[in-house]
């Protein structure tokens, strides 16, 4: 018994030691820029201290840490905020939510990036969502873009978009509508981790298509909340949204493809049959 307890203690100590050795995230300095002060760190319990009410958005994802640093170059100033969102889809989700639709796209800065006057830059790389905001001095779009590329190149991870995006077909998709909801998709607390986009059918009617990996909790508690049945040998979950039609999901325990917008369950199921193989 004592040997068992000793082994458990050693395992805990080893795990804590391994965690302690993980590299700490730092804000990379853009070329030629000088750090003004120390970095500032905020976790899930303290994020509100830095961005107040905006913290709620980030906490719906797997956000773990924000690291902020200020830099200067002559009279110019930059504030670089690096959000560790916990995963590529989470970073993509908050980026698509905050990204201005009319912002200028920037190439070669992470997986996706935009410039927004008066020169705020947003980009994602791997699990990181990054904001770079210009302060005093003459920070042109070219200078800010170069800083974004420098920071992106120095962050760990790769520059590819989340592979899950391939689950949403391109045919009929409304441009600029792909997004990711960490929780409470369509107002339902049990629809979590949903990748979605808007589509336009051949008849011109619009609908929303989404993909999710159902949790054991969803599958176990669906009865009573959702009408559970089978369609063409696949699981089917359906329910109504007051004044907004129905929501139908079809697939298996590893992945469900859903649709909202149609007014009838059978019409929604037929629509899904085009996307579920």
> What fraction of the residues are assigned to beta strands by DSSP?
25-35%
Mean pLDDT: 86
DSSP summary, beta strand count: 15
The largest sheet is: 8 strands, antiparallel
Weakly predicted, low-confidence segments: 1-21
Summing up helix and strand content along with how strands pair, one would put the structural category as alpha+beta
* Overall helicity: 10-25%
Radius of gyration: 22 Å
Helical run tally? 7
Could you tell me how far the N terminus lies from the C terminus, measured between alpha carbons in angstroms?
54 Å
CATH class of the largest domain: Alpha Beta
Shape: elongated
Name of the CATH homologous superfamily of the largest domain: PknH-like extracellular domain
Count of discrete structural domains:
2
Q: The CATH topology of the largest domain is what?
A: Protein Transport Mog1p, Chain A
Quick recap:
This protein is of the alpha+beta class and 277 residues long. It contains seven helices and 15 strands. The protein is elongated, with a radius of gyration of 22 Å.
Structure, explained:
The chain folds into 2 domains: 25-154, PknH-like extracellular domain (Protein Transport Mog1p, Chain A, 3-Layer(aba) Sandwich), CATH 3.40.1000.70; 163-272, 3-Layer(aba) Sandwich (Protein Transport Mog1p, Chain A), CATH 3.40.1000. It has 7 helices and 15 strands. The chain has helices at residues 2-20, 48-51, 55-59, 88-98, 141-154, 216-221, 265-272; strands at residues 34-35, 40-42, 65-73, 76-84, 104-105, 112-116, 120-125, 128-134, 179-181, 194-200, 206-212, 227-231, 234-241, 245-251, 256-260. A hairpin with a 4-residue loop joins strand 14 and strand 15. The radius of gyration is 22 Å and the shape is elongated. The N and C termini lie far apart (54 Å). Residues 1-21 have low confidence and may be disordered.
């Amino acid at each position: 018994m004592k040997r068992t307890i000793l082994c458990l203690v050693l395992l805990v100590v080893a795990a804590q030691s391994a965690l302690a050795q993980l590299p700490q995230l730092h804000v990379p300095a853009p070329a030629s820029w000088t750090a003004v002060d120390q970095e500032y760190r905020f976790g899930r319990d303290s994020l509100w201290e830095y961005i107040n009410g905006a913290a709620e958005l980030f906490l719906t994802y797997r956000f773990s840490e924000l690291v902020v640093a200020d830099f200067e170059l002559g009279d110019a100033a930059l504030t670089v905020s690096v959000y560790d969102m916990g995963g590529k889809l989470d970073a993509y989700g908050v980026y698509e939510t905050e990204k201005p639709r009319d912002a200028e796209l920037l190439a070669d800065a992470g997986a996706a990036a935009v410039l927004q006057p008066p020169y705020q830059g947003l980009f994602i790389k791997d699990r990181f969502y990054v904001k770079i905001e210009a302060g005093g001095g003459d920070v042109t779009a070219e200078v800010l873009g170069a800083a974004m590329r420098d920071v992106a190149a120095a962050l760990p991870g790769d520059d590819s978009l989340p592979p899950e995006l391939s689950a949403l077909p391109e045919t009929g998709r409304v441009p600029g509508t792909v997004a990711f909801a960490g929780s409470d998709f369509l107002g339902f607390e049990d629809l979590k981790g949903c990748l979605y986009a808007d589509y336009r059918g051949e008849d011109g009617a619009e609908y929303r298509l989404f993909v999710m990996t159902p949790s054991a909790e969803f599958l176990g508690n669906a009865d009573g909340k959702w009408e559970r049945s089978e369609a063409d040998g696949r699981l089917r979950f359906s329910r109504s949204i007051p004044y907004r039609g129905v929501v139908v999901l079809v697939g298996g325990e590893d992945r469900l493809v859903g649709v909202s917008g149609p007014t009838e369950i059978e019409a929604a199921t037929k629509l899904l049959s085009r996307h579920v193989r």
